[in-house]
Amino acid sequence: MKNQQEDFNLLAQQLLTEGLSPKEFDDSSFFSMMATLNARKKEDRAELVDPLEAINQTYGL
Question: 22 Cβ partners below 8 Å, 6+ apart?
Answer without folding.
Answer: 16
